[in-house]
Amino acid sequence: MMKKTLTALTLSLGLVLSFSSYAKNNVVVVATGGTIAGAGASSTNSATYTAAKVPVDDLLNAVPQIKDLANVRGVQALQVASESITDKELLSLARQVNDLVKKPDVNGVVITHGTDTLEETAFFLNLVVHTDKPIVLVGSMRPSTALSADGPLNLYSAVALAADDSAKGKGTFILMNDSIFAARDVSKTINLHTNAFVSQWGALGTLIEGKSYWFRQSVKRFNNRSEFNIENIKGDALPLVQIVYGSGNMLPDAYTAYAKAGAKAIIHAGTGNGSVAKNIVPTLNQLQQQGVQIIRSSRVPQGFVLRNAEQPDDKYGWVVAHDLNPQKAKLLAALALTKTKDAKEIQRMFWEY
Ligand code: DGL
């Protein structure tokens, strides 16, 4: 009798466990390095540490509570500080994420990443990975070894978001400091504190204690609605685009040097509303005539560059980056150049993405 009871109990426990595992979504955590995988000499080193040290399984084991949210497995795609990610790594990561979201048994993807170029990788995936499954990029401002490290809770929240069916079809996200940001809008605005990431248009929502609360959605094109697709991008380099930072007393040499290095477009990170010093305009027009697309962005973090305001863009054949900051304009310009060199078409893309 006892044996039958034990067998029945074991079977039912197995069923409960398998059902609960079955009831949870499957999330893959793709690790690339950064501070979230960083380690400092002591717990009081919140800003002095080495990034990209802790492997993905240790990151996951440090937050056992994520097992309550989803069936999670880790993949170590890279182990680098994000400022060192080049086109090669970016394209490879996009292909890996694209392969994962195509798998029927993957419901969402989390990417742990350095915060320095987190917004760039997120924006790129937002533009080239066709899926409605949640892709959530997450980092931390303090290393895992620091007092009040922000990585573990950021990772927990990122897994919660990636496992949340309500996050489907809303774009690629950055989850930092309880906020759910649209990849295209958010940027790192503070280089030392945990509330580093901000969007001038606000977060899409917030995630608290594993539950997401939504307050708006993006009207821009992304993921399934994008005309760009990683599956159509060959090789390990994008068309070369570079950025020149505007200030007083500008020289034209940086622009001509980049053109000589093979840049197919140059992002002018102008003062104010994408202003261009009058001694620089002839050089930019000469480069435009030579086939290097000039794109006016701004070094100012908020607002957007108004077409034909500071400069006669229609007359010069220049493009304005609208509200995209220089580093995001650089990525969209590179993708645009995989399809066209026509300034009007490129400008359309800057209005739509
Ligand atoms: N080296 C920086 C990076 O990997 C560290 C910053 C961070 O991850 O928060 O982006």
TrEMBL record:
- What InterPro entries is this protein classified in? AsnASE_II (IPR004550), Asp/glu_Ase-like_sf (IPR036152), Asparaginase/glutaminase-like (IPR006034), Asparaginase/glutaminase_AS1 (IPR020827), Asparaginase/glutaminase_AS2 (IPR027475), Asparaginase_C (IPR040919), L-asparaginase_C (IPR027473), L-asparaginase_N (IPR027474)
* Name this protein carries in UniProt: Type II asparaginase
The record's listing under SUPFAM superfamilies reads: Glutaminase/Asparaginase
PANTHER family associated with the record: 60 KDA LYSOPHOSPHOLIPASE, L-ASPARAGINASE
> GO:BP terms for this protein?
asparagine metabolic process
Q: Which UniProt keywords apply?
A: Hydrolase, Signal
Task: Please report the stretch or stretches of sequence annotated as the Asparaginase/glutaminase C-terminal domain.
Answer: 241-350
Q: Its Enzyme Commission number? A: 3.5.1.1
Q: Tell me its family.
A: Belongs to the asparaginase 1 family.
List residues of the L-asparaginase N-terminal domain.
26-217
In the UniProt record, the signal sequence range is 1-23
Residue sites binding substrate per the record: S82, T115, D116
- Which SMART domains does the entry link to? Asparaginase
**Annotated catalytic residues:** T35, T115
Q: Which organism is it from?
A: Acinetobacter shaoyimingii
Q: Which GO terms describe its molecular function?
A: asparaginase activity
Short name of one Pfam family: Asparaginase_C
The reply to whether Membrane figures as a keyword in the UniProt entry is: no
The highest taxon in the source lineage is: Bacteria
